């Protein structure tokens, strides 16, 4: 599971443990293997899963643009009060899905959350922003995306992994939510990043200072 | 057949030339109501490669930002929206303003910094425009083809955007900063829009004050990792940073251990920096950290573990105990 999503699942399960949430539904869009990811979420404490199957070429080209549409429809259908997502997937590094789903639902959004507190159908969320932190107060329903420091996800225990096998996973398709998967971007190519030339190991700090002088750093800086 | 192909391709060229003239780009300026965020200048350079550059300044008592922007090279027009409703620069209140502005001016490209501000705002805007945004671009191939990194900077993807309006966040360190003098942009009021946001309220912020340069724009960055052992030991790096006019960063391990605040984290999920000189002290060099600094011009690593992956990207490495090497360096500089 994407590490930020583990943090989102953990936060949802904690909300349930604090009786803030009644039910936790885990959702994954993609090929059959997604069911393993859903089982992990169920073993962490989610109540049931929804697998929106997207495979083959559709899966290769699918983007936050499409996923956010599916999630927005699904959130309404499930009458969710809080839609929790990771702040970004560590493969495409997009950091878009939560914000886009919030827009489609016209729900407020709190991205990069490092603290979430509930009181009277309001969420007070502390966000990690450049230079420090900021605090927002939001009405539910709302969208929250998780940052690294929100919590430390639990390990699924063996008994919970066994129990998770009995929890239901509903199978859906993008068409069930009326979402068209036509690509909006074409990936023209994927290249290796430029490699850095091998460096050298220096013996002493004096050597380093003279190298920095040679490179024109020391003095100018 | 060949002739007609040649003709149509020259027609295409002619057309794209005409299009070029009608390309117009909106940059949503990032600021704190008093000063422009420095990376906005890098985004303006990226925008200039695409067409005429207009800037939207939304905020609360932000006239000085519009004044500062009017002198920036390459900016032709400033749209100012000064309203209490934009307090805290919430995505919920700025999105309707940008949509209204877009309705009036039909920009082909809408850009913002790939910072917490731009990453929060632009996807929300893109969804409202029903287009797929492009995050954190490091290059522009042409008006609809952009270059970005994936897998923590381990692959470079070239993407052609098929939507009519391109919504893009820009990695500041990949573009030069536009000159802050010499421009003469006109300022006008942004279109009126009724901002009704009773869903979210901005409760306040806690921004860490520092006299050192801002991390993402600094010419020199010194970062500490788990090897620093505690927060007090970072004082050595601050002393060194003051001598080199450097910013101080950290690895995730150092942040998680509570040595320094989160906003100092350099890496895939923290800040991306590309200074002239990056000094990594007590940092092993995990992929996620390298994603945030491997485009630095010169990388120096100080680590007692000769096998640490950081040495594979370092131009100069010293295998030594940082508690000896850093004080020595402090004495010599």
From TrEMBL, chain B:
GO CC, any one term? mitochondrial matrix
Under the heading CDD domains, the entry gives: ETF_alpha
All copies of the Electron transfer flavoprotein alpha/beta-subunit N-terminal domain together span: 25-206
Cofactor comment in the record?
Binds 1 FAD per dimer.
The record's annotation in Gene3D superfamilies points to:
HUPs, TPP-binding domain
Q: What is its main location?
A: mitochondrion
- One Pfam family, please name it: ETF_alpha
Q: Where in the cell is it found?
A: Mitochondrion matrix
Please list the cofactors this protein needs.
FAD
Q: Where does FAD bind?
A: 226, 251-252, 265-269, 282-289, 303
Sorted keywords for this record are:
Electron transport, FAD, Flavoprotein, Mitochondrion, Transport
Q: Please provide the Gene Ontology terms (biological process) for this protein.
A: fatty acid beta-oxidation using acyl-CoA dehydrogenase
One MF term from GO for this chain? flavin adenine dinucleotide binding
SUPFAM superfamilies, sorted: Adenine nucleotide alpha hydrolases-like, DHS-like NAD/FAD-binding domain
What function does this protein fulfil?
The electron transfer flavoprotein serves as a specific electron acceptor for several dehydrogenases, including five acyl-CoA dehydrogenases, glutaryl-CoA and sarcosine dehydrogenase. It transfers the electrons to the main mitochondrial respiratory chain via ETF-ubiquinone oxidoreductase (ETF dehydrogenase).
Q: Give the family, as the similarity comment puts it.
A: Belongs to the ETF alpha-subunit/FixB family.
Q: How does it assemble?
A: Heterodimer of an alpha and a beta subunit.
Q: What is this protein called?
A: Electron transfer flavoprotein subunit alpha
Q: Which organism is it from?
A: Capitella teleta (Polychaete worm)
């Amino acid at each position: 599971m994407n590490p930020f999503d583990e943090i989102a699942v953990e936060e949802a399960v904690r909300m349930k443990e604090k009786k803030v949430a009644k039910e936790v539904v885990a959702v994954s869009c993609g090929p059959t293997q997604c069911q393993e990811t859903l089982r992990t979420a169920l073993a962490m404490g989610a109540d049931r899963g929804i697998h929106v199957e997207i495979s083959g070429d559709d899966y290769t080209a699918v983007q936050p643009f499409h996923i956010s549409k599916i999630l927005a429809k699904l959130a309404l259908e499930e009458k969710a009060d809080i839609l929790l997502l990771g702040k970004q997937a560590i493969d495409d590094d997009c950091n878009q899905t939560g914000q886009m789903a919030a827009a489609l639902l016209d729900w407020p959004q709190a991205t990069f959350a490092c603290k979430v507190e509930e009181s009277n159908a309001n969420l007070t969320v502390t966000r990690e922003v450049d230079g420090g932190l900021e605090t927002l107060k939001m009405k539910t329903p709302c969208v929250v995306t998780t940052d690294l420091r929100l919590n430390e996800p639990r390990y699924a225990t063996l008994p919970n992994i066994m129990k998770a096998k009995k929890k239901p996973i509903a199978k859906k398709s993008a068409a069930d939510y009326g979402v068209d998967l036509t690509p909006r971007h074409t990936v023209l190519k994927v290249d290796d990043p430029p490699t850095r030339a091998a460096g050298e190991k220096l013996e002493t700090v004096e050597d380093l200072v003279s190298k920095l002088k040679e490179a024109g750093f020391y003095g100018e800086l | 057949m060949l002739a007609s192909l040649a003709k149509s391709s020259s027609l295409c060229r002619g057309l794209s030339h005409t299009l070029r003239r009608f390309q117009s780009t909106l940059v949503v300026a990032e600021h704190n109501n008093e000063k422009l965020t420095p990376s906005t200048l890098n985004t303006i350079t990226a925008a200039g490669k695409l067409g005429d550059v207009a800037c939207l300044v939304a905020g609360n008592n932000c006239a000085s930002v519009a004044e500062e922007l009017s002198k920036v090279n390459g900016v032709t027009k400033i749209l100012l929206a000064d309203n209490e409703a934009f307090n805290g620069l919430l995505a919920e209140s700025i999105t309707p303003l940008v949509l209204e502005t877009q309705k009036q001016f039909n920009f082909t490209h809408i850009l913002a910094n790939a910072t917490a501000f731009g990453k929060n705002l632009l996807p929300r805007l893109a969804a409202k425009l029903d287009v797929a945004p492009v995050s954190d671009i490091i290059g522009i191939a042409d008006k609809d083809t952009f270059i970005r990194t994936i897998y923590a900077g381990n692959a470079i993807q070239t993407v052609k955007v098929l939507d009519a309006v391109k919504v893009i966040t820009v990695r500041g360190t990949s573009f030069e900063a536009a000159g802050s003098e010499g421009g003469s942009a006109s300022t006008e009021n942004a279109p009126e829009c009724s901002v009704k946001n009773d869903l979210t309220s901005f409760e306040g912020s806690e921004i860490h004050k520092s006299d050192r340069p801002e991390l993402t724009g600094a010419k020199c960055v010194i970062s500490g990792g788990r090897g620093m052992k505690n927060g007090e030991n970072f004082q050595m790096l601050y002393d060194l940073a003051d001598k080199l006019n450097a910013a101080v960063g950290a690895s995730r391990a150092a942040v998680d251990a509570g040595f320094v605040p989160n906003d100092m984290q350099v890496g895939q999920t923290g800040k991306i920096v590309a200074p002239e000189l990056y000094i990594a002290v007590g940092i092993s060099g995990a992929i996620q950290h390298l994603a945030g600094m491997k485009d630095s011009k010169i990388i120096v690593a100080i680590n007692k573990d000769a096998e640490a992956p950081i040495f594979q990207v370092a131009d100069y490495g010293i295998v030594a105990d940082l508690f000896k090497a850093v004080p020595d360096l402090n004495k010599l500089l």
